[in-house]
């Protein structure tokens, strides 16, 4: 329900009690009484009632900017209350993969909950294929995907993530500043399981190479541990390996295989309010950081 400040501002805006009453859905007598109560509260006559309409009195002209500011602040407060109510008791369900869950989401969720402490999260771990399926069927609100690995969804690109060669200490290839896919293909290879679409395998295929896959592993950080033990070499995303270089030798790959990480949803217009707020928050925070 609009306050007396809002009623007064609408009368001034339309220069008419009748038009203001019609627009607000009130009777003309109710609008007139509301303005009269406001005048009694302030102690001055704010509006001069004339046959050709209404206009502000000199006192009314002095008070109007302040009354308008109160009305504007009230509207902002109502909007904020609606916004907060939209997040209260809301659960945001996100499809994600390991590296996002470890490197990106924790700080984003922490910052978001400082603003919206009532928001809660459910993280569903998967690969590109399963996350794309969850988005299309609506079992997650949105998800992180490889742009090249999904279809049938709306998405917004976040950043590019280049793959790096990961080698155990003392491996002959560590003497080189950069390593080719051909050299990696000849070694016992630990393949990151990314679902139906594999960035490493696609990169090898473009070079008409077939790597000697000895292990296929879902978790990026398990791969790092296996390489430390000398079980093979691998390709791991740069953002994954940052901070975990100890006991490993990291080298760029000449052919620069990479993925384009995007945020994806089925239909932005039908996305739950809380999820849409968090998705927009992610997009703002990651803009320019790719």
UniProtKB/TrEMBL annotation:
One of its GO terms (molecular function) is DNA-binding transcription factor activity. InterPro entries: LysR_HTH_N, LysR_subst-bd, WH-like_DNA-bd_sf, WH_DNA-bd_sf. Gene3D superfamilies: 3.40.190.290, Winged helix-like DNA-binding domain superfamily/Winged helix DNA-binding domain (1.10.10.10). CDD domains: PBP2_LTTR_substrate (cd05466). Keywords: DNA-binding, Transcription, Transcription regulation. Pfam families: HTH_1, LysR_substrate. Residues 7-57 form the HTH lysR-type domain. Belongs to the LysR transcriptional regulatory family. This is LysR family transcriptional regulator. It comes from Oscillibacter hominis.
